[in-house]
C-alpha cells in the first residue's frame, strides 16, 4: 500500500494509541501461540513465543511511559487497514510441530510489516510530531528485524519433512 492511501493520524496522541494497541495485540497473540505450543509439548517454540510476547508487552509499557499515560487507552478504538494489526501474526500460520526457525520466520515477517506500517505513516503524516514518532518507531522495528535475523542465523533450518507426525492427533465425532 502506498502513502497516498495510508491515512495518517492527525495528532501524536492518536498515533501513539494506534502504536500501543498494535504492541498489545502482538503481545497477546504471541502469548496465545506460546500456550498452544505448550499444549502440544513444543516447549522450545513456546519459550520463544513467550519471549516475543514479553518484548511486545515492554514496548507497550514504554509507549505508556513516554506518553505519560497513567492507564492504558481503552481497547477497540483503533481500526486497522486489514483484519488485524500489522504486527499480529495470523492464527493459521502456526503449526503444532513448528520449530524455532518457523517461529522466528513468523516473527520476522511481523516485524517487517510493522516497519513498513510506520514508514507509510511517516510518509503520509502532515504533523511533524506524528512523522517524528513514526520514524522513531520504524527505526525500532528495523532493530527488531535485525535482532530476529541474528537469532535466525543461530537456529538450524528444518528439514523438508519437519511436519511429518508418526502419531498425529485424531479427532472423533
What would you say this structure looks like, in words?
It is a single chain. The chain has 173 residues and is an all-alpha fold. Helices cover 60% and strands 0% of the residues. The radius of gyration is 18 Å and the shape is elongated.
Strand residues, percent: under 5%
Major beta sheet summary: none
Total individual domains: 1
Distance between the termini: 44 Å
Approximate shape? elongated
Q: Helical percent range? A: 55-70%
Look at the helices and sheets and give the structural class: mainly alpha
Mean pLDDT: 87
CATH superfamily: Ferritin, core subunit, four-helix bundle
Would you tell me which CATH topology applies?
Ferritin
Low-confidence stretches: none
Compressed to H and E, one letter per element, the order equals HHHH
CATH class call? Mainly Alpha
- The CATH architecture would be Up-down Bundle
DSSP E strands, number: 0
- The number of helical segments is 4
Question: Using only CA atoms, what is the Rg?
Answer: 18 Å
In summary, what is this structure?
This protein has 173 residues and is an all-alpha fold.
Question: Main traits of this protein?
Answer:
single chain; mainly alpha; Ferritin; 4 helices
Blueprint of the fold:
Layout lengths: L11 H28 L3 H25 L32 H25 L3 H25 L21
Amino acid at each position: 500500500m502506498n502513502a497516498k492511501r495510508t491515512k495518517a493520524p492527525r495528532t501524536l496522541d492518536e498515533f501513539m494509541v494506534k502504536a500501543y494497541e498494535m504492541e498489545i495485540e502482538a503481545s497477546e497473540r504471541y502469548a496465545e501461540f506460546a500456550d498452544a505450543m505448550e499444549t502440544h509439548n513444543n516447549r522450545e517454540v513456546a519459550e520463544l513465543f513467550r519471549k516475543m510476547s514479553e518484548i511486545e508487552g515492554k514496548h507497550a509499557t514504554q509507549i505508556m511511559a513516554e506518553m505519560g499515560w497513567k492507564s492504558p487507552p481503552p481497547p477497540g478504538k483503533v481500526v486497522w487497514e486489514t483484519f488485524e494489526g500489522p504486527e499480529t501474526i495470523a492464527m493459521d500460520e502456526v503449526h503444532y510441530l513448528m520449530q524455532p526457525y518457523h517461529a522466528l520466520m513468523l516473527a520476522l515477517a511481523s516485524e517487517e510489516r510493522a516497519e513498513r506500517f510506520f514508514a507509510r505513516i511517516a510518509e503520509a503524516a502532515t504533523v511533524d510530531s506524528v512523522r517524528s514518532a513514526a520514524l522513531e518507531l520504524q527505526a525500532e522495528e528495523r532493530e527488531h528485524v535485525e535482532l530476529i535475523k541474528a537469532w535466525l542465523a543461530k537456529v538450524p533450518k528444518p528439514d523438508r519433512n519437519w511436519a511429518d507426525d508418526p502419531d498425529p492427533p485424531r479427532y472423533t465425532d
